[in-house]
Amino acid sequence: MKTSVIFGTLVVAGLSAAGAASAGTLDDVKARGVVNCGVNTGLVGFAAPDANGNWSGFDVALCKAVAAAVLGDPAKVKYVPTTGQTRFTALASGEVDLLVRNTTRTFSRETDLKMDFPAINYYDGQGFMVRKDSGVTSAKELNGASVCIQTGTTTELNLADYFKSNGMTYQPIAIDSNAEGEQQFLAGACDAYTTDASGLAATRAAFPSPQDYIILPEIISKEPLGPAVRHGDNNWGDIVGWTFYALVAGEEYGVTAANVDELAKGTENPEINRLLGHEGNLGAMMGVPNDWAVKAIKAGGNYGEIFEANIGEKTPIGLARGLNAQWTQGGLMYAPPFR
């Protein structure tokens, strides 16, 4: 799911400078009246359209929150499907205002491809999925296996490193997209499928018989996934990042889609009052209305509500919070102070 440095450099180099130089994304969005959000071409639970073309999912919820914060309406989003090969070009060229597409923050993407990751909305890691009747229970039993892998990605590099470090061999089965990988894996073209563990869970949930497949316990990499924006527009990056943190803080302080309007009238907690615009002028500092966080939380709920509704343990995806739990619950989700 993550385009390689080599490919990204070749495709984006001629576009990144122009994209970074256009430091007026907020003005563009306001003038256009819609946020152009780059999303996955279709990953159940994260970003996928229904039969009527209505998009939903964990990543889509952040697109909606940003639109609500800036434009006051979560529906004012144009969803632009992007593949692993096209997503960085779409961002660098200005086709999209932000990329919310299970994209890993890496050194080269920030320094070479000239992107910023204002926040991490999902802490992930690369895993493996196999058929249950294969008898395989560990990735270390995959010596000599055929593995479906998207070419030109960091997932591909992680796979090579893992097998080499464990003295194993494998046969790569090249695929271009998650949809193709799903088809190949179901058809028996490969013994295992590898990508981000959350992506494996989402892919499995869409199978005709999900119970016939298991995700192996090994996680072989760190994949901090988050929204990406262009270098050179710090104000827009602030808006995207702090909108996400508003959702995280909302969960920590018990601010939900249902009670946010009432709490916005004032509470005994100064942090909540600042967050919701009852005190101070945090919105004005970014060029958005002071009730920006109220609108963002109303769009789809706080971070916990969004997680549970789209990919949580009660959904077909079935993901536990794990590292994505609040810091007070042993996880890594932590919003900086609103002051």
UniProtKB/TrEMBL annotation:
<feature type="domain" description="Solute-binding protein family 3/N-terminal">
    <location>
        <begin position="34"/>
        <end position="263"/>
    </location>
</feature>
<dbReference type="InterPro" id="IPR001638">
    <property type="entry name" value="Solute-binding_3/MltF_N"/>
</dbReference>
<dbReference type="GO" id="GO:0006865">
    <property type="term" value="P:amino acid transport"/>
</dbReference>
<dbReference type="InterPro" id="IPR051455">
    <property type="entry name" value="Bact_solute-bind_prot3"/>
</dbReference>
<protein>
    <submittedName>
        <fullName>Amino acid ABC transporter substrate-binding protein</fullName>
    </submittedName>
</protein>
<comment type="similarity">
    <text>Belongs to the bacterial solute-binding protein 3 family.</text>
</comment>
<feature type="signal peptide">
    <location>
        <begin position="1"/>
        <end position="23"/>
    </location>
</feature>
<keyword id="KW-0732">Signal</keyword>
<dbReference type="Pfam" id="PF00497">
    <property type="entry name" value="SBP_bac_3"/>
</dbReference>
<keyword id="KW-0813">Transport</keyword>
